């Protein structure tokens, strides 16, 4: 429908719209598109821009998706300069049945995004503000601000907030699925710190959503928020810096020969993490250390002497590499050893991710997964950017929130097992097929020993082929579907791990 409406698209310059703004020359653009987007009656805000694939600098002027695997395809992108234009775009797409996708940080994993073909990118790149109110201890964060954008303003004001594990993920995108992270043992999930949202509904209305306004929708937005609208900003409670903003960190490398003793030690921490201690394990390829290795990153916003005692079971294993750091909270992600944050945030690579949430820390499964990765790296060198990531975060403040108070279903998960496959070459070539096969086998294996009766997956880490009950919880689906029918009856928000119709 969209292609029929706007015709073939190609041009060399962005179209800048709005009163007082200049209009660039459009070359080779379909006349219907020119009419649709530039007619004076639209009255776009000054600074709103329209871009088209193929034009010079398209990729740098618009927000590109982090992974190129199973990516959506666009015939155009619009970057609104004001909330009113976001409303207009949503109404236009709803009225003309134009498939579209709101884009904040552009870091979504799911293959469900790839079902959008020849659509419109609603680029929220102009909404990156971070405003801290010290008196009310709140922060209002724009729809395209990333985790990395939030650290410095909060730290300068003496505050912190839970975030995800890498700086390039959109803060609001990371919020809407739940928001797991290192500080969840202290402050809960990101949604547990969410106070209100300003969002554009499927009808194009701008509404406030909070515990006192549209409270039914507020429940659904905290865990399934991708399904109901476009969030232009959100307000959160923030917290005084833990330990004065000082974080103890250690990064360790264990060789192939050490993997069994390492994973048995990791499993011994099941149910024993203090609220401040967070551990991230990576199985990676590292030629310097002889091939497949295990990397461990541990953080702790507390006194150094206690930290040394807590990590002693790992340092006693005599890792091949050890680096201790004391970092300010605002450098926690970008200051990680081995430039892990920078590597994770590289765009335009092919990433195919599967995951499982587990209650158990199963060393036999970890050891088996290490062996499978080791063999994959040996047989298919084009997969050596793949990683197995195991996020072991404390849950004290997460489980303290009643399960029924938000849509998020999986509050007692002890470990997020992220089977992240990356490969070069064809997305259907031998390396890609082998990597996806290993990932599917591991997802099945981890699910069997997870400690749960069903597959439980943090929706923001989903591959996209799972049953929606694994993302949202079977018991919560009826209420979520009821909200969907009320707030988005045309199902225009349907590309991010969507709710079923019944």
pLDDT averaged over residues: 91
Number of strands: 19
Tell me what portion of residues adopts beta-strand conformation: 15-25%
Total of DSSP H or I helical runs spanning 4+ residues: 16
Low-confidence stretches: 1-13, 18-31
Characterize the overall form: globular
Alpha-beta content class: alpha+beta
Strand order of the largest sheet: 16-13-15-14-18-19-17
Describe the structure using short key phrases.
502 residues; alpha+beta; five-stranded mixed beta sheet; seven-stranded antiparallel beta sheet; disordered N terminus
Q: Would you kindly provide a written description of the structure presented here, covering whatever features stand out?
A:
The chain has a seven-stranded antiparallel β-sheet with strand order 16-13-15-14-18-19-17. It has 502 residues and is α+β, with helices and mostly antiparallel strands. Helices cover 28% and strands 23% of the residues. A hairpin with a 4-residue loop joins strand 6 and strand 7. The protein is globular and about 70 Å long.
How are the secondary structure elements laid out?
Layout: H1 2-6, E1 15-17, H2 31-38, E2 48-51, H3 58-61, E3 74-79, H4 83-96, E4 100-103, E5 119-123, E6 130-133, E7 138-142, H5 147-156, E8 159-160, H6 171-176, H7 184-187, E9 194-200, E10 206-210, H8 215-224, E11 230-237, E12 239-240, E13 246-254, H9 259-267, E14 278-286, E15 291-300, H10 304-315, E16 321-328, H11 340-344, E17 350-358, H12 363-379, E18 387-392, H13 396-399, E19 415-423, H14 430-448, H15 468-472, H16 477-487
Parallel strand pairs: 3-5, 4-5
Antiparallel strand pairs: 1-2, 2-3, 6-7, 7-11, 8-12, 9-10, 9-11, 13-15, 13-16, 14-15, 14-18, 17-19, 18-19
């Amino acid at each position: 429908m969209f292609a029929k409406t706007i015709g073939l698209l190609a041009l060399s310059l962005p179209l800048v719209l709005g009163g007082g703004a200049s209009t660039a020359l459009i070359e080779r653009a379909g006349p219907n598109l020119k009419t649709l987007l530039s007619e004076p009656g639209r009255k776009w805000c000054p600074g709103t821009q329209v871009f088209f694939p193929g034009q010079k600098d398209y990729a740098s002027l618009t927000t590109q998706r982090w992974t190129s695997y199973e990516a959506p395809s666009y015939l155009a992108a619009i970057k609104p300069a004001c909330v009113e234009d976001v409303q207009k775009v949503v109404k236009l797409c709803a009225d003309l049945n134009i498939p579209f996708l709101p884009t904040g940080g552009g870091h979504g994993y799911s293959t469900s995004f790839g079902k959008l073909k020849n659509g419109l990118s609603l680029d929220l790149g102009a909404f990156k503000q971070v405003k801290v109110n010290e008196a009310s201890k709140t922060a209002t964060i724009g729809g395209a601000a990333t985790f990395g954008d939030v650290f410095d303003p909060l730290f300068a004001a003496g505050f912190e907030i839970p975030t995800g594990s890498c700086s390039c993920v959109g803060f609001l995108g990371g919020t809407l699925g739940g928001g797991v992270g290192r500080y969840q043992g202290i402050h809960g999930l990101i949604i547990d710190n969410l106070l209100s949202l300003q969002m554009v509904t499927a009808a194009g209305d701008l509404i406030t959503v909070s515990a006192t306004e549209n409270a039914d929708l507020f429940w659904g937005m905290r865990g399934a928020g991708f399904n109901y609208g476009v969030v232009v900003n959100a307000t959160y409670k923030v917290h005084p810096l833990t330990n004065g903003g000082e974080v103890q960190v250690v990064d360790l490398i264990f060789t192939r020969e050490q993997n069994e003793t390492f994973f048995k030690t990791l499993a011994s921490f099941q149910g024993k993490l203090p609220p401040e201690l967070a551990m991230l394990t990576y199985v990676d390829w590292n030629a310097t250390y002889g091939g497949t290795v295990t990397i461990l990153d541990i953080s702790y916003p507390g006194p150094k002497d206690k930290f040394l005692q807590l990590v002693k079971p790992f340092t006693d294993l005599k890792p091949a590499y050890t680096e201790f750091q004391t970092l300010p909270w605002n450098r926690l992600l970008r200051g990680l050893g081995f430039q892990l944050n920078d590597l994770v945030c590289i765009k335009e690579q092919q990433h195919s991710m599967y995951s499982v949430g587990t209650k158990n820390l199963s060393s036999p499964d970890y050891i088996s997964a290490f062996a499978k990765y080791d063999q994959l790296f040996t047989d298919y060198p084009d997969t050596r950017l793949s990683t197995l990531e195991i996020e072991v975060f404390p849950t004290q403040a997460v489980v303290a929130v009643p399960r029924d108070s938000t849509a998020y279903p999986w509050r007692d998960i002890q470990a997020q097992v992220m089977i992240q496959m990356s490969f070069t070459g064809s997305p259907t070539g031998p390396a890609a097929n082998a990597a996806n096969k290993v990932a599917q086998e591991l997802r099945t294996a981890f699910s069997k020993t997870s400690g749960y009766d069903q597959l439980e997956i943090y929706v923001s880490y989903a591959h996209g082929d799972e049953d929606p009950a694994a993302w949202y919880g079977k018991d919560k689906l009826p209420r979520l579907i009821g909200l969907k029918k009320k707030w988005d009856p045309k199902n225009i928000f349907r590309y991010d791990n969507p709710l079923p119709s019944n």
